[in-house]
Automatic annotation (TrEMBL):
Taxonomy of the source species: Bacteria, Bacillati, Bacillota, Clostridia, Eubacteriales
Domain (ABC transporter) ranges: 2-227
Record protein name field: Cell division ATP-binding protein FtsE
Membrane topology: Peripheral membrane protein
Primary localization class, coarse: membrane
Similarity annotation: Belongs to the ABC transporter superfamily.
Superkingdom, taxonomy of origin: Bacteria
Keywords: ATP-binding, Cell cycle, Cell division, Cell membrane, Membrane, Nucleotide-binding
Length: 227
């Protein structure tokens, strides 16, 4: 479970990105985090990743208080999370296979296990036939599938996706969301930052809404609510 208690983040510029928000997300949930630009959505994800530290408040992930986590444990904690970025961030000089395998090599997985795990993951995201392709030979939707495969290859408990369909057309966007839904059905908790009302309405999931750093909505059923 993810529990956010009275969380506040103020940057050195004086910008108050988050203002005392409280959220609970249960294991296995699929949750959209919505809001306009500057609402604090991406800041919340960075705090969950421990890329940022809160000004005040608590974040507890599966009974771990992130503020009390020793620095040496942070890499291990992050391996329990998968992160998908809007801009894909693929290694342009590496094939699809090599991009996904890279995430395992950096944590010391054996070559034998990599040869087993990567093809299985590429089948899950529908890219078995593209394993030799380079990023510039893929469509935008296919590149995003590679990014999702790389985020999932180490079996994270939680998948964080920051605007994963922001650069895609409607058709590819819905394909990516259906893939994330399938991943969720397999037991992974999924948090998706988006500003697309159409996707949220179509998916019918829980929606947490932030407005200028304040929690203004927490609804189920794909309802957009903002004051």
């Amino acid at each position: 479970m993810i529990e956010v208690k009275n969380l506040t983040k103020t940057y050195k510029t004086g910008n108050k990105a988050l203002k005392g928000i409280n959220i609970q997300i249960q294991d296995g949930e699929f949750v959209f985090i919505m809001g306009r630009s500057g609402s604090g959505k991406s800041t919340l994800l960075k705090l969950l990743l421990k890329e940022l530290e809160p000004t005040s408040g608590q974040i507890i992930v599966n009974d771990m208080d992130l503020e009390k986590m020793p620095r040496r444990y942070i890499p291990k904690y992050r391996r329990r999370l998968g992160m998908v970025f809007q801009d894909f961030r693929l290694l342009k000089d590496k094939t699809v296979y090599e991009n996904v395998a890279f995430a395992q090599r950096v944590i010391g997985v054996s070559p034998r296990e990599i040869k087993k795990n990567v093809p299985e993951m590429l089948r899950l995201v529908g890219l078995s036939s593209k394993y030799k392709a380079y990023p510039n030979q893929l469509s935008g939707g296919e590149q995003q599938r590679v990014a999702i495969a790389r985020a999932l290859i180490n079996s994270p408990e939680i998948l964080l996706a920051d605007e994963p369909t922001g650069n895609l057309d409607v058709h590819n966007s819905m394909e990516i969301m259906e893939l994330l839904e399938e991943i969720n059905r397999r037991g992974t908790t999924v948090l998706v930052v988006t500003h697309s009302r159409e996707i949220v309405a179509e998916m019918g999931k829980r929606v947490i809404t932030l407005t200028r750093g304040v929690l203004t909505g927490d609804q189920k059923g794909g309802i957009w609510h903002e004051n």
